[in-house]
Structures
1.
Amino acid sequence: MIYRELQRNVWGGVSILFKVVNNFEVEENQETKYTDSRAPRKGQSHSQGDGHLIELRDLVKVYKTPAGDFPALNGINLKVGRGEFLAVLGKSGAGKSTLINMITCIDSPTSGEVIVNGAAVHKLNEDQKARWRGENLGVVFQFFQLLPSLNLIENVTIPMDFRNTYPLGERKERALHLLEQVGIAEHAYKTPAKISGGQQQRVAIARALANDPPLVVADEPTGNLDSRTAGEIFDLFSALVDQGTTVLVVSHDKEVANRATRMVEITDGEIKTH
Amino acid sequence: MNSILWDDHGHKPNGNGKSNGNTSLIELRRVGKTYQTSAGRFDALKGVSLEIKQGEFVSIIGKSGSGKTTLINLITGIDDPTEGEIFIGDTPVHKLNEGQMAAWRGLNIGIVFQFFQLLPTLTVLENVMLPMGLCNLYTRAGRYERARHLLELVDLAEQADKLPNKLSGGQQQRAAIARALANDPPIIATDEPTGNLDSRSAEAVMKLFEDLVAQGKTILMVTHDGDLAKRAKRTIALADGVIVN
Amino acid sequence: MALHTRWSKIFKDMWSYRSRSLLVIFSIAIGVAAVGMINNAGRIIQRDLYGTFTAGNPAVLEIYVSPFQKDLAKAVQGMREIESAQARRVESASVLGRKDHWEDVGLNVLPDFNAVHVNQYNLQNGVSVPGTREILLERQSADKLGLAVGDEVTIEMADERRYTLTVAGIVHDVYVMPFALLGEATGYISMDTLEWLGEAPYFNRLDIVVTGNKFDKDHVLTVGNLARDRVIEPSGYKVFRIGIPGIGSDPGEHWAQSQIKGFLLILQIMGILAIFLSGGLVINTVSAILAQQIKQIGIMRSVGAVRHQISGMYLINVLVFSALGLLIAIPLGLLGSWGLVNFAANFLNFDVGQIDLSLKVLSLQLALGLLMPVGVVLIPVFAGTRISVYNAIYQNGLGGEKEGGWIEELLSKFRNLSPPVMLSLRNTFRKKARLAFTIVTLTLAGAMFIAVFSTRASLTKQINDIGRYIAYDAALSIPGGANKRTVEREALRIPGVSLAEGWANAVAVIERVDGSQSAEVDLVGLPGDTATIDPLLLDGTWLIAGQPQQVVVNDDLLDEEADIRVGSEIVLKVGESKRTYQVVGVLSKHLSGPRIYMDYNAFGKLTGRQNQVDVVRVLANPGSTSSSAQQELIAQQLEERFQNAKLSTSAASTRHAFFEKFTDVFDIILIVLLIMAVVLAIVGGLGLTGTMGMNVFERTREIGVLRAVGASNLAVRSVVVVEGVVVALISWALGAFLSGPSGRALAGAVINAVLKADLSYKYSVSGLFIWLGIVVLIGVLSSLVPAQNAARLRVREVLDYE
């Protein structure tokens, strides 16, 4: 078992090395194909039947703790349509972070189904999840989570790098364009430590958009920001929604309610309907 | 009022007797804190003056970025003010260096963190004994007895010999409170103590705090939860670095 | 050119943590350089020393013969079994060197300096044929004596007459032992000059190259016996000794070849050890990088990185480290081999050709440098990239600990320790893999260190054991022999000398049961009540006076004649005389070669040399030897008296001089070994520093908590330092355990390489405790910097970042 994993790992390393050595031509060809197929794919997804981007069915998550089982989610059913700006509200410990981790498949459910953009993501294995996530959604964390040693452009480029989207030569341009979009292009060559928290969160949003995903998910994106900066970040999300991206924000900040097109409140692992 | 604080030699001149509650235990005079970030200056606190009397249960509320965590960090000496003075008893906290501060804080302020911060390799009992050892208080046998007693107080006597990871979040936080009480400090400072707990555990922790206040401890609690804040006798609301109530 | 972002992350991370990157790069470089140095040096020595040696038609056999003329060499060369034979005269004299200091010199006379065909030397300067009253000097001798071509040199012969010769040439002779090693200069003169020096014109040695397999010891010795039986003795000459040149060497080999081989082997083992230690350091550091970047791994996975992409990143990172390590290691190894080869060349007196790097050594370095690091990090990388995004990103507060193992179980039993000490102890065992590598490194260094001390102790013991066989103050050989009573009486006239013993020597062969004969064995006849030997008996008893049929043999003889044991009967043959004796005891080896001791009277009967002795051994106080100054005084008087009495012109030897000579040679070797052990200790210390640094780094938050609950600077520092010392002590205990066998192996290897003798092993307890002091010091020193860093941490920085 371990041996096989090892073998795969070694092979991974070797194949990467091989790619580096054989310059980038091969990849560029693949990418051209990929870019060709991108436009229709997005159109296609819009024309899909039920029009729901996210569908959660009887979702249950139980954490095993030394003090006993802790049910974080108690049978959640939720549908989110394309182009919605959904706010998930709730106190600490209510289960809202758990819920969002199910949608981003950062965590897996104890039972129930998670269908996002037509894929039953709870059935994927870790690597499939990583691939799927990289191509279909952008995640924004409370603590920004930029890679400290990379400059802003590189932080925005890295999702394209891992998923091989866009030709190598175009990635930097695209990253710059995204940084411009979040209003931070002038800092493009700085490292994250050199900019403020609000600016870091903008970069995180640009990174979430790198592979042009149909869905952006944010967990307490303004939890560490002062109120003015928080407002600016929400403005950015609103702009994304206007461009057709579906946005899901988890927050305990009531401010978000003013921006969202729809709100769900979670208490003790259940959705409280309004 | 000085009498309730430990002196440099680990002596508390007046036992645990209550002093008169009219003079302030904690006093901040025009305290400001400015962070120099690469993105520019950020004024976290702007000339805050404040007095807290012994035995008060004070909650500090405000949104993210309002300066509430900065305020409590300055009082506990975890951070230094850019300007102004902070006195706790007669001690000018702002003048102590990091090493002196650590020793002074160990004796006079018990800190309870949001994420418990128990040392993972020590048992619950050893975690509670640790501050006494570090500040060289009590005899060896005395430390053990006292730690046992404190764990009984927070209803964890049965968990004493377990490692922290065997405990639930609520239990860990109660152990952390027992640790904060180890050196019998007059002040307890806590930042979002229930932020990571379910509502039942949170309630147990709040009940403990109320008991401690009844015994004469002074408690400062940072929270963003309005409901929790209401349980304190006094609420200080912060917004953009200034007190707003 | 556009670069993949993940590759630029690798390079930027390397740059951000420069000191850590350098630690890995140097770890790889040190091990690989060591292996390169040793292998390349071995190859160059092989090429240059053995090359020069083989090129000059080396003699595989030396036969010492009674005075003869050069016709005998021709007759011997005429044998079918012999390729060439060359006559040589070897004569001892003294030469005046720098600062009016007299040195021993071996004077060599060859029949025809224009046609040297065995043991050919190379001319360095001047002329290659010495004229009358001229001398050629071996180049190292000339160098040490401070003489050049054209200089005049004073020679003193045994009869104390002095002569002045002119240095006509400087030659390089790889067949004589160099001055640096032997302490004896080498010169070449013509037979005319020798006569002028007052010596009779004859030769006394034959240097022989055999036909057939030159490397087969048995074959070579058989040819030697044939030459003696068919040519030399029938011509009326007497053969004193047939031997193979060198110090216990095999025929056809350079006289130091097995010693060099032994030494290179020891170094090779140390090189392998260095590679092991490097591997440990690489694993520890890469594990720490992975641990530190857990959150970043989680982020990368959250933006779409699949596992093989991430493991690939870290493996490529290691490959970059390897490449940079090789960049240092290859030139460093070459430089090291240059140093090692030159050291050897100086010591052993050979010329070094081009210092180059062979493809084989280069490939070895490349393979080790690239495969070793990647190989050892596969498991940590594999394990480190396995973590789920959830665990990587949402780890809040102090990290969760795994179930405690038996160590934790054991530690939880200690209840009386104060919590800070408890914390240090428990922390020690938290990262078990890292701890294991650190301890292995320090343990190996410790085992090596103690082994070097044990080697020293063993060498000392060995010398002391050998010293028991020369329990005299001074001894003097009497060439040709003299009457026993005269000799002893003469010696006893020296003031202070209270005991004088005359010993006799002969060469015998053992006639085996099947009628075949053994090789020649030294036969020693000594007084039944001898007091100048304190034999170390391995078995049986020492000679009992009045038992003329008893003999005692040494262990060297048993190596050659496996059937002999205590109680055996052996038939000894000296010339035509043949008698049977009983073996009653076996002695330890004492650098003598196979030897048989028997009572003096029995010796006389067997050899037919009644009342003749060849050596006189004297003692001032029976039962104890004198001080070195007193020994020198006695030796001088002994020489003087015997010269005046026309009994001997030889130089007397003292027990003290014997010890001194060996100690000097051993010290050089021990210093080289000690330097190696110190290097290992430094690498071990670096490993511990790295480990403690990583530990502190990972426990930043815990240290903040310690601060928050009242830990002073001193308390924070001591938590770290105590942990370092605990690690050091564990490694010491394990090292102590391992030092027994490792010391035995190293001491055995060294003694075998140097003395060509078996081991008499002694464990060095003082080495054990010296290492205890050093390792505790290493523990303290290597945790001081991390401890300082820990004490500098401020609570806010620690707790505020999330």
2.
Amino acid sequence: MILALVIVFGLIMVGGAVAALYTKDMVSAIVASGIVSLLASVLYLVYGAPDVAMTEAAIGSALTTVVFLYAWNRIVKQRQKDKEDHK
Amino acid sequence: MIKRLLLIAVFAGVVLSFLPLTSLLQTRTGVTSLAQQYLNRAPTDYNIPNIVTAIVVSYRGLDTLGEVTVLFAAAVGVSLALGFRRKARPGKDEPVHAEPTKVPASEILQTGAGLLLPLILAFGVYIFLHGHLTPGGGFQGGVVIASGLLLALLAGTFADVPHGLLQVLEMLSGASYVAIGALGLWLGAGFLDPRFLPAGEFGQVYSSGAIPLIYSLVGIKVGSELATVISDLRRNS
């Protein structure tokens, strides 16, 4: 049971990581990397490291994702501004 | 060509020079002698059920202080890079930051955030107060508190976190952390030694010397620091 969970989560994590690398839409890539962190935190919990799991869930999947989204938002705005300046 | 061959030869030489070390590799059959020491000594030394916390706060307390310092440096860096509101210079450029029209949060998010925020904050406090009893501790509690504040910011429960209050909290808790460490040097056996407070009853909240106090300070510091970072990023995006 636990092994099946680990295998399924591991496969989804690999899929999420590859998707984060190759997807064209940046927001999807950020969300995919957040999913990798979330599943990793479940795996840490399964393997008996609740301390690490808590940190990974809060930092890896919540705060890091939001920081990436804010940074991406800023980049998009800057690009728009540069385009308007060119015209 | 010669240069590249030489480079490859040097690289291979460096890699091969580590080959003899592989003879030292062996399969572990039990915990290392150091881990065994911690397992034997932590309950009697500090009267603490959670040995991970004993290691993080006391045996390896200096590492934790270093981690807190790294986080502090990162937060200061973000504040320096993004924290200041850029003032429009008159005549030179028009105000860049015309306040963007913010889409108000949906009612579901607002209600949910209002319901969850006190629970998340209480849970964060619980995690760092019980760091010596249950898994988790200052860092974990701090990030939970920061994520709760983030939720409130996203839902628009309040427009911005109180920067001044957070800075004062962060400053005071950081300074008290180091002060308690120094107090251990004075009253106890060494820097960050928590045994200058009574060991208390095993498994109670008020036990394990100064460990709950130290972890609470770390939790407040980490939480306020991360909340400041998030709000700086949000304000400038």
